């Protein structure tokens, strides 16, 4: 994709008036699927990989992310997002540059190989983070498409990106596990409303701009239904950047935490200016180092 081609906005969003959803022309799978776990990715827009990490690896990564969350100096870093109500760590961004263990995990063929199969090219890390959803006070996220935000605020030309969420705790149906609408990745839902300046400072804790209308969510849910990612520690969810997804609040005693990695194709790199925002977001949220994962 040339820079000139990528400036053509095929996914207009953040408009002053409502714009109807459009059917996606880009494929969901760009490469050749060889892993049995990804057999239905093209149709569903997601896949669950059981036991991606061993119990020993899960234990090691759990200790690592607990260490990061307890670091008082790191808590002052802009890359650390604090919950509004509980004042606890919600997310730590650019974690692969903070943690050597996560950096090594990204290069693991079990991980990056999944992204290469779906995207059909070399890939780079668009975003990495660890997410913490504590018991009783963990705040969820409303229905949204990640690509809508990455297109509008980061300048990602097309939805040729995937996210991998690796569970470090049990994902029960009742502790805020991720919900997805299978097949919804084939529909792009534009959102109404102008992007405020430095929108990321609020949207990373609670997103209000860049979310679909109730009518659009209802239509997609009636068409596709809703599935939920549940499973044991060490399992993972790989999902398309444009799939509609959300998570509910966690009011149970059981915390939920995960490592979250976003892989973008090296043929889909960000353009210099976002499509529907005044300025680009910080590079710890949207990387502009497009060197492929090796």
TrEMBL record:
Return the similarity comment.
Belongs to the PhyH family. EctD subfamily.
InterPro entries reported in the protein's UniProt record: EctD (IPR012774), Phytyl_CoA_dOase-like (IPR008775)
Q: Which gene name belongs to this protein?
A: ectD
Catalysed reaction(s)?
A: L-ectoine + 2-oxoglutarate + O2 = 5-hydroxyectoine + succinate + CO2
One GO molecular-function entry:
iron ion binding
Instruction: Describe the task this protein carries out.
Output: Involved in the biosynthesis of 5-hydroxyectoine, called compatible solute, which helps organisms to survive extreme osmotic stress by acting as a highly soluble organic osmolyte. Catalyzes the 2-oxoglutarate-dependent selective hydroxylation of L-ectoine to yield (4S,5S)-5-hydroxyectoine.
Report the SUPFAM superfamilies cross-referenced here. Answer: Clavaminate synthase-like
The source organism is Nocardia wallacei
State the Pfam families in the record: PhyH (PF05721)
**What is the protein name given in its UniProt record?**
Ectoine hydroxylase
Instruction: List, separated by semicolons, the cofactors it needs.
Output: Fe(2+)
Q: What is its EC number?
A: 1.14.11.55
Q: How does it assemble?
A: Homodimer.
Q: Which domain of life is it from?
A: Bacteria
Keywords tagged on the record: Dioxygenase, Iron, Metal-binding, Oxidoreductase
